[in-house]
Design goal:
The complex is a heterodimer.
Chain A: E1 9-13, E2 19-23, E3 28-31, H1 38-46, H2 63-72, E4 77-81, H3 112-129, E5 139-143, H4 151-164, E6 171-176, H5 183-191, E7 194-199, H6 204-210, H7 220-234, E8 238-244, H8 250-258, E9 263-270, H9 284-305, H10 315-328, E10 353-356, E11 361-363, E12 375-376, E13 380-381, H11 383-396, H12 413-416, E14 417-418, E15 421-422, H13 426-449, H14 451-472
Parallel strand pairs in A: 4-5, 4-10, 5-6, 6-7, 7-8, 8-9
Antiparallel strand pairs in A: 1-2, 2-3, 10-11, 11-12, 12-13, 14-15
Helix pairs in contact in A: 2-3, 2-11, 3-4, 5-7, 10-13, 13-14
Chain B: E1 4-7, E2 11-15, E3 21-25, E4 31-34, H1 36-46, H2 51-57, H3 63-75, E5 79-82, H4 95-100, E6 111-115, E7 132-134, H5 155-167, E8 172-177, H6 184-196, E9 201-206, H7 213-220, E10 225-231, H8 238-249, E11 256-262, H9 268-280, E12 284-292, H10 293-302, H11 312-317, E13 328-331, E14 336-338, E15 349-350, H12 354-357, H13 363-369, H14 391-398
Parallel strand pairs in B: 6-8, 6-13, 8-9, 9-10, 10-11, 11-12
Antiparallel strand pairs in B: 1-5, 2-3, 3-4, 7-12, 13-14, 14-15
Helix pairs in contact in B: 5-6
């Protein structure tokens, strides 16, 4: 029998003083009582809730296995980088020079020939993969720079797909800074069911702190007026993404969102820390102040929002529940065989998403650097290169096999790539581990407050989002 | 001190409409029925109500009774005491959520049943026109297959089926062969193809006991399970008798199971005798009771019900899908697709247009629609997640897919 020392778990004490363990290998949570019972631990082993080390041993990877895995994942989406140009110069932009592996601001546009080839390639792969998953729908996303700078191409792509691939119910989306949403653009998006998500960092003073034009002028007024137009046309609130950093005033952002009926914050996300020295600009005092404010907001959330059914789409609900949502999802892993290509951590399989750059090269996703392409629109996916990439990745995470969170760590290509390929930085690991532990504690605190509400809040959130998307389709 | 008692993460209390309930232990597989009094107590304890509060909320409960009950639960390792309210994250796989997240949802076939032929020389009581129904009808001859118009599954179609289901992660395949001696070469060709696809389990169901030594030996060369259907009669005839002699002679007979078809209680002694013989020869046996349709409802209502043991997977799965139909697909000799070999009123498509099977109202929706939580009579029954429900039998007897006519437990 496995001894307690060999169990891979994270122990956390909740605000109320209860002790819990997360068996990270099987994504399960128990009170620490389980550690006192040999009989229950034996069941954990028998039912594959504790994984033996062979579960994480690498297996043979070849082009055929990769192809099958990509098909099983059903080609989640095609992302077209329709332009590298942007009319904003956001201070945290990954293309703004702060992130050493990422490109700088450019002014290239994708041409029609490249876009058409990318679309044809995606639908060819999608139709081949369909036999592995009949319920999936194709998804085409337009990315930039600011994608609407090349609106003519977006229009051509959608009209071409509608004409050429009539058998498919395609879901279109784009993330925009919102300034180029003219009446013509809005009418087209509405007519063709394009889900436009707008970046909006909160009220004017918050948004304008980071999201500025090249002359340094804030962009809020121009964005907000278009959001109102978009909301009126679609007769629903506009989905937004809110990015924050240490200087963000979460309280103000929260008040703004909860009092603005034209927007629903879909997702809150901190400025990306990996691969950049962005956070070195903040003083220790600012960090302490931010944490204090966050604590205050958490207190408010726990006492005024958690448990209240009418506040499921509240900003703070998104802010806190988003970051610990994985702990609420009951996707218990009872498998005896590890079906993942990379046995530890959770990267995408290169090719399951198709990101096509302006030049027509294919990359793992829009977030990785463009130093290693996995194919191009002329020749399609290069499985040999994908196998090499996966092997390189696996070699770089050998040390992860003995990590407490080996089966659920969020490390992926984007996080561990550097000038020399892939490298797991201990400081990054420590940061991921500590964040996860903090999130686990947050999840437990919310569940202790009201477990039924927590489950319902998540279900209601997804249901309302689903309804919104259905209305759109 | 104000103490709390909670069932463990692996133990689920499922209340009954009548006020009683059941506790499922997905670790051990046990299911305990609980009385109305116990159910009231567990309900409160599971809502983080302290033991003292339970006593004040249920004044008719004596403290000694409550303490001894809780201690009994503790001794049986289904729960424990805590000194403050605690969050218990129940051990469940949330199939509902998985199906609602677009990037996660994917169709998974757990079992495919394929009918290769409709020809058989044997005359069984249960055969066409089907007057009987029973347990395990999905792996028995259903009595609906036999026809005067000879039909065999085309090899090309069979290949297409295997290729399609393997992509949907199907691991278990059942091939129904009413009479293997009618076109032996063809059936072995089918088996050759099936084994190429590397399914985890291939089972052949042989409807006719008339099988020669050579055929049995050839079958045993494959890594497959063999089920031979055999009617239990007081007076045995020919081939039915000789099957034991054949099984005794051949090596590797542990891969073979005998599926006994029992029609009435008069053969009880004979059945015991046959079970003894199979045991002595190391052969597995499955017993399937068949009842004349017109007497079936009465029979089921007046005989004990059996439930399955529970597990993490089945307890979770059965909350969203039907325990038997969930993940099941049936192909007839034309390649037509049905949810079950006995639900032939619900044609879902054909292998030649397999995409159609999974459209908006497709087979995967059928798996969910028929779950016990959607059967009005069953949705408040405490043992619904372990019930050996057969939708096909209910449909045949009640003419409604969502009725339950063979059970009077409410």
């Amino acid at each position: 029998m496995m001894t307690e020392e060999k169990l891979y778990y994270t122990k956390v004490v909740s605000e109320n003083g209860n002790e819990y363990v997360r068996l990270n290998d099987s994504h399960t949570i128990f009170t620490s009582e389980i550690l006192k019972s040999p009989k229950r631990i034996k069941y954990l082993e028998k039912l594959n809730l504790l994984k033996e080390s062979r579960f994480f041993e690498d297996e043979k990877i070849d082009e055929e296995i990769i192809r099958r895995k990509i098909y099983e994942s059903a080609l989640q989406q095609l992302t077209l980088e329709v332009t590298t140009a942007c009319n904003f110069r956001c201070k945290y932009c990954v293309f703004g020079g702060n992130y050493k592996l990422m490109r700088s601001h450019e002014t290239k546009n994708m041409d029609w020939t490249t876009a058409k080839k990318a679309i044809d390639l995606y639908f060819k792969l999608f139709s081949e993969a369909e036999e592995y998953n009949y319920t999936r729908k194709p998804m085409v996303t337009f990315y930039g720079g600011e994608p609407l700078i090349n609106f003519t191409l977006i229009k051509d792509c959608i009209l071409y797909i509608e004409q050429q691939y009539t058998n498919y119910d395609v879901h279109y989306s784009l993330t925009t800074n919102g300034t180029l949403l003219t009446d013509e653009v809005i009418d087209f998006l509405y007519l063709h069911n394009v889900n436009a998500v707008v970046s909006l960092d909160g009220p004017k003073e918050e948004h304008n702190r980071n999201r500025v034009y090249s002359n340094g002028k804030g962009t809020f007024d121009d964005v907000y007026i278009n959001i109102i137009k978009l909301s009126k046309k679609f007769r629903r609130p506009v989905f937004t993404i809110c990015v924050y950093d240490i200087r963000s005033d979460i309280e103000k952002i929260s008040t703004f969102y909860d009092n603005t009926s034209a927007v629903i914050c879909l997702n809150t996300t901190p400025v990306k820390s990996f691969g950049s020295d962005y956070y070195t600009q903040f003083t220790e005092k600012e960090k302490i102040d931010f944490n204090e404010k966050e604590k205050k907001m958490k207190y408010y959330f726990m006492n005024n929002i958690a448990g209240d059914n009418s506040k499921v789409l509240n900003f703070l609900d998104r802010y806190f529940i988003d970051r610990c949502a994985t702990f609420f999802c009951s996707f218990v892993d009872t498998h005896s065989v590890n079906g993942k290509i990379t046995k530890c951590t959770n990267p995408c399989i290169p090719g399951q998403k198709i990101f096509v750059s302006v030049e027509g090269r294919i990359y793992v996703c829009e977030k990785v650097s463009q130093s290693y392409s996995i194919g191009n629109v002329e020749e399609g996916l290069n499985y040999k290169k994908i196998v090499n990439l996966v092997k390189q990745y696996c070699e770089s995470i050998v040390g992860c096999k003995v990590c407490e969170i080996r089966n659920e760590c969020g490390v992926c290509n984007m996080i561990i790539e550097n000038d020399n390929g892939f490298n797991v930085d201990k400081a990054v690991c420590e940061s991921i581990y500590n964040t996860r532990k903090k999130q686990f504690k947050l999840a437990l605190d919310i569940c202790e407050k009201d477990p039924i509400w927590t489950k319902m809040a998540i279900a209601l959130y997804y249901k309302s989002m689903e309804e919104e998307v259905k209305n759109l389709l | 001190m104000n103490m709390y008692f909670r069932l463990f993460e692996e133990c689920f209390f499922v209340p009954d409409r009548g006020g009683t309930g059941a506790i499922y232990n997905v670790f051990s597989g046990d299911i305990y029925k609980v009385t109305e009094k116990e159910a009231g107590i567990i309900k409160l304890l599971e809502s983080n109500v302290s033991i003292n509060e339970v006593l004040s909320k249920m004044p008719h409960i004596k403290k000694d009774y409550l303490i001894s009950l809780i201690n009994l639960y503790k001794e049986n390792e289904i729960g424990t005491f805590y000194d403050k309210p605690v969050y218990i994250n129940k051990l469940i796989i949330d199939y509902k959520a998985m199906n609602n997240i677009p990037v996660m949802s994917s169709i998974m076939i757990t079992r495919a049943i394929i009918s290769l032929s409709n020809q058989c020389r044997q005359k069984c009581k249960l055969c066409y026109p089907a007057q009987y129904l029973g347990d395990n009808t999905c792996i028995c001859c259903s009595g609906l297959e036999k026809s005067n118009i000879e039909q065999y599954m085309e090899i090309k179609k069979l290949n297409k089926i295997f290729s399609a289901i393997v992509k949907l992660k199907c691991k278990n395949v059942v091939l129904k062969i009413p009479d293997i001696e009618v076109k032996t070469e063809y059936f072995f060709q089918c088996l050759d193809i099936a084994t190429e696809y590397l399914f985890e389990n291939i089972t052949v169901l042989l409807g006719n006991t008339c099988i020669c030594d050579k055929t049995l030996n050839n079958l045993l060369n494959y890594n497959i399970n063999i089920i031979i259907q055999k009617e239990v009669k007081n007076k045995e005839i020919g081939s039915s008798l000789s099957i034991y002699n054949r099984l005794k002679k051949i090596k590797g007979h542990k891969k073979i199971s005998l599926l006994f078809i029992v029609y009435d209680d008069e053969v009880k002694n004979k059945l015991v005798e046959e079970i003894q013989i199979t045991n002595e020869n190391g052969i597995n046996c499955i017993i399937s009771k068949y009842i004349e349709k017109e007497n079936a409802i009465n029979y089921y209502l007046n005989n004990p019900k059996f439930v399955n043991r529970t597990s993490i997977e089945s307890f979770s799965y059965n909350q969203y899908f039907h325990s038997c139909l969930g993940g099941l697909i049936y192909f007839d000799q034309n390649g037509d697709v049905y949810p079950c070999p006995n639900l032939l009123d619900f044609k879902m498509g054909n292998i030649n247009n397999f995409k159609e099977v999974w459209n908006k109202e497709g087979l995967h929706k059928f798996w969910h629609l028929t779950s016990m939580d959607n059967i009005s009579k069953c949705k408040t029954c405490a043992i619904r997640y372990a019930c050996k429900d057969c939708r096909a039998n209910e449909y045949i007897l009640g003419s409604d897919l969502f009725k339950k006519v063979t059970c009077n437990k409410i």
